[in-house]
Predict the 3D structure of the following.
Amino acid sequence: MHPMLKPALRRAWRGRNTVQFGVTPAHAVKVGPMDIATGSFLELLDGTRGMPLLHEEARTLNLTERQVDTLVSRLAQAGLIDDVRAGGPEADALRNRSDVLERQRPDLASLSVVHPEPGGALRRLAARRAMRVQVRGAGRVGATIAAVLSGSGVGRVEVLDGGVAEPSDVAPGGLPVTAVGERRDTAARQLVRRSAPGPAPRTGEDTGGATVRGAAAGAGPGLSLIVVAPRDGLAVYAPDPRGAEPWIDSGTPHLYAGVIEATGVVGPLVLPGGTGCAGCLDLHRTDRDPQWPRMLAQWRSGRRNAVQACDLGLATAVAGFAAAQALAFLDGELPAATGARWEAALPLLDWRSERIGPHLNCSCGAVGHTGRERAFGLGSPHDTMAG
């Protein structure tokens, strides 16, 4: 082990014998009692020394091997220690890609804060390279989501859309102005390629023991997630259950995101057979408002050339929120959009959530199986020691 204090967490003395690691309450940890000798020893935990050398140098500070081992163990249990050599073969392969790793230093630092175990951050970053995500939509929201996922290290990001890019599709972080007039899917592929921290791994490269979720995971790799982000926000606010039937049948997780009438929508993240789906959402709405199906039929059959009220700031916020939810899921968590929908409307942008529970009359099979999230290889949220 080559222990290193996680560089993402700033530290400060709270007094003479207590050190606080981290600024924000979500991830801050207090460690004490701490004297001057052990405080000086912290400076040695920079990842350049193994435990034998740390034991040797600690003797000059009048610290015994047992004191050193106890301190390192306590720091590791508190989620403050990383191991620069841990993470498995996929992480080792990524360490050899210095060009990629330098681009992703901030992502790695963030993951090290969220995932406390030594080597956990690099292992997850390496696992992303083996994943395949499909984004359905290349407008202001969808293209930006695809770019963020690609830039965050997801190895294969596919974008599906039709037609040619229009001036209204252009967005910072999304399709550039030079894409206007090009096929949307072609322009989106170029965007994904430019956003990636390095070339996508070839099949079988750097994938090692990475986890790939979804029913198609046996064919290499299968879809880990589908992000549904069409340019028409109605298809996200009121998704057609028939369009999701193949994903439900194949067990493919999918997340909805978009903007309609100056309202941003993220979620639900659907885990087939485990959480409420588009069909459940539709049935719940009909229960609350019997006229909903009548109005929805009129909206879906209305004029297709309506201008989408998709403010750039809101579209970017939705894309960022959705991409963060997707990445959390790919990294093994159950993010806030799991079985829930988040909405925020201009001008206040006050995000509010609504649970989308399974509906008794829906054929998705989620009723009575809300604990099936574990079928997707997702663990329980880890405990953190907060100061």
In short: Residues 312-330 form the longest helix (19 residues). Residues 88-125 form one domain.
